[in-house]
Write a structure and sequence with these properties.
This protein has about 425 residues and is α+β, with helices and mostly antiparallel strands. About 30% of the residues lie in helices and about 25% in strands. About 0% of the residues have low confidence.
Length: about 425
C-alpha cells in the first residue's frame, strides 16, 4: 500500500494554487441527474472521492467525457438504473445527495449505507427526515444492507425544519425540492460556501432558489432544468490547510487568487489563524504569508487561555480543526481547541504526541495545546482526510524522517499533494 516518506525541515518557498472544492463538486455532480441536457463542469478536483462519484453515476447510465483533467461533460439522459452497487455507493459519504437526485428522476432508489471518514457517528436521520417531508417512503433491507426509497407520486414541496444544520442533508433537501411539485422552505439549512455553490449552479440551469447564503432557503419547484456550464469554486479548506503548512514549517507561501472568490472565507478562517499568531497579508488577489514567523497565541481578556471551536458556517470549519491543532503546536502559549461535531476526530492527536507535540487530550472533543513544540519524525497512519494532511504538515515541520501510511485518505481530498508541495521545496516521496 502506498505511503509517504517525508524529510522534515525543508525550506519552502513558492506559490500554490488551490484546487476545486471537493465538497462542492460532489453535490453538483449529483445534481446533474436533474437534467437530461449536457452539463460542463470546470475546475473539478482530480481526487479519489470525485472519481468514485463519477464511477457511481457512470454505472447507472450517465455519459461522462473528460474534456481535460479538470473539465468534465456529463449527460444523464440515459440513467435508468436505481439500484446503486454497494461496492461503489458505500465508499464515500459524498454520494448521499444522489438519493434525492434519483428520486426526482426515477421515483425510487436503492442505496447502500455510505462510507467516508471514520471520525465518529455520522447520522442519517436528518436525511430521512428531509426525504419523508418531500413525500418519500423508505425501508431498510438487512439482507442487502440498503435503504430502499420510494416516491411513487413524485416529490412534493413542504416546510422542512432540519433538526441539525447538516451539509449533506441540506444538499439532499435542495436537490429534492427544485423539481418537486409546489414550494419548499428549508429552515436551519447549512449555508457553507459549497452549499451556496450548489444553489448557484442549480439556478444557472433554471432552478428557483432564494435565500442563498442564509439558513432559510425558499425553493419554487420547476418543471424541468436545462443544460449549462459551471465552474467549481476553489477549496477554502485547502487554503486553510496551506495556511497551516506555513505555520508549521515557517515557509514563505503565496496562495494564488484566493481573494477572487465570491464567498468571503478568508476573514472567517484567517481570524482564527491570527489568534495563534500567524501573520499574512493581501497582495492583489493573492494571500501572502511571510517566512520564519515567531508566532504567539493571543490570550483572551485579562490573559485568559483562549479557545478555538468549530461550528456551522460562518463559524470556523470542522474540517480545519485538525490543521489548527498542528499549527498551534508551533505557537508560543496555550490554547484550547474544541471540536463539537464529531466524537472521534481528535483521536489522531496521539500520533502528534508521539512526534513530540505538547498536546493534552481532555476528552473526545477538546485538546489543550502548549507550544511551541519541537517535532520529531515518526511512523504514523492517516485515519481520515484532514488528520492525514495534518500529519503530513507535522512531518514537514519535524526533525528527521517520517513515514505516513494509508495515504489513500489524503488522496481522497487533496489533489497530487506530494507533487504540488515538492514544487515549492518539500521533500516528499511516494512509495509502495
Amino acid at each position: 500500500m502506498a505511503y509517504f516518506e517525508v524529510e522534515g525541515k525543508a525550506l519552502l518557498k513558492g506559490k500554490l494554487i488551490p484546487s476545486g472544492n471537493k465538497n462542492e463538486a460532489l453535490p453538483v455532480i449529483a445534481a446533474t441527474l436533474l437534467t437530461n441536457e449536457d452539463i460542463i463542469l470546470e475546475n473539478v478536483p482530480a481526487i479519489n472521492d470525485v472519481k468514485v462519484l463519477l464511477d457511481i453515476i457512470g454505472s447507472i447510465g450517465a455519459e461522462i467525457e473528460y474534456v481535460d483533467e479538470h473539465k468534465i461533460k456529463i449527460n444523464t439522459s440515459g440513467v435508468e438504473r436505481y439500484d446503486i452497487l454497494n461496492s461503489l455507493g458505500g465508499k464515500i459519504r459524498g454520494s448521499l445527495p444522489l438519493i434525492a437526485a434519483l428520486l426526482s428522476k426515477l421515483n425510487k432508489v436503492f442505496f447502500p449505507i455510505p462510507g467516508g471518514d471514520k471520525i465518529g457517528r455520522r447520522r442519517l436521520d436528518t436525511h430521512l427526515l428531509v426525504l419523508k417531508k418531500l413525500g418519500v417512503e423508505y425501508t431498510y433491507d438487512t439482507d442487502t444492507d440498503k435503504l430502499k426509497f420510494f416516491a411513487e407520486n413524485g416529490l412534493k414541496g413542504n416546510y422542512i425544519l432540519l433538526d441539525e444544520a447538516s451539509v449533506t442533508a441540506t444538499e439532499n433537501a435542495i436537490i429534492g425540492a427544485v423539481l418537486a411539485e409546489g414550494e419548499t422552505s428549508i429552515y436551519n439549512a447549512a449555508c457553507e460556501p459549497h452549499i451556496q455553490g450548489l444553489c448557484k449552479f442549480l439556478n444557472s440551469i433554471g432552478a428557483k432558489i432564494k435565500g442563498i447564503g442564509t439558513n432559510l432557503l425558499n425553493i419554487k419547484g420547476v418543471d424541468n432544468l436545462g443544460g449549462g456550464r459551471y465552474k467549481i469554486q476553489d477549496d477554502y479548506i485547502e487554503v486553510g490547510s496551506f495556511m497551516g503548512l506555513a505555520a508549521v514549517t515557517g515557509g514563505e507561501i503565496t496562495l494564488k487568487d484566493v481573494y477572487r472568490s465570491k464567498t468571503d472565507y478568508i476573514s472567517i478562517i484567517g481570524r482564527e489563524f491570527k489568534r495563534i499568531g500567524l501573520n499574512f497579508k493581501r497582495k492583489g488577489d493573492d494571500l501572502y504569508i511571510p517566512p520564519n514567523q515567531n508566532m504567539e497565541i493571543q490570550p483572551d481578556f485579562r490573559n485568559k487561555i483562549p479557545k478555538i471551536g468549530d461550528g456551522t458556517w460562518p463559524k470556523f470549519p470542522a474540517d480545519l480543526i485538525s490543521i489548527m491543532i498542528v499549527s498551534a503546536t508551533q505557537s508560543k502559549g496555550s490554547i484550547i481547541i474544541h471540536e463539537k461535531m464529531f466524537e472521534s476526530r481528535m483521536f489522531f492527536v496521539d500520533k502528534l504526541i508521539s512526534m513530540g507535540a505538547r498536546v493534552v487530550l481532555c476528552d473526545p472533543h477538546r485538546v489543550v495545546v502548549n507550544g511551541p513544540s519541537k517535532l520529531y519524525g515518526a511512523e504514523v497512519v492517516s485515519p481520515d482526510i484532514r488528520a492525514g494532511i495534518s500529519l503530513l504538515l507535522a512531518a514537514m515541520g519535524a526533525e528527521g524522517k517520517s513515514i505516513i501510511r494509508n495515504i489513500y485518505q489524503i488522496d481522497r481530498g487533496y489533489e497530487k499533494i506530494d507533487k504540488r508541495l515538492n514544487k515549492i521545496g518539500a521533500k516528499i516521496m511516494r512509495k509502495g
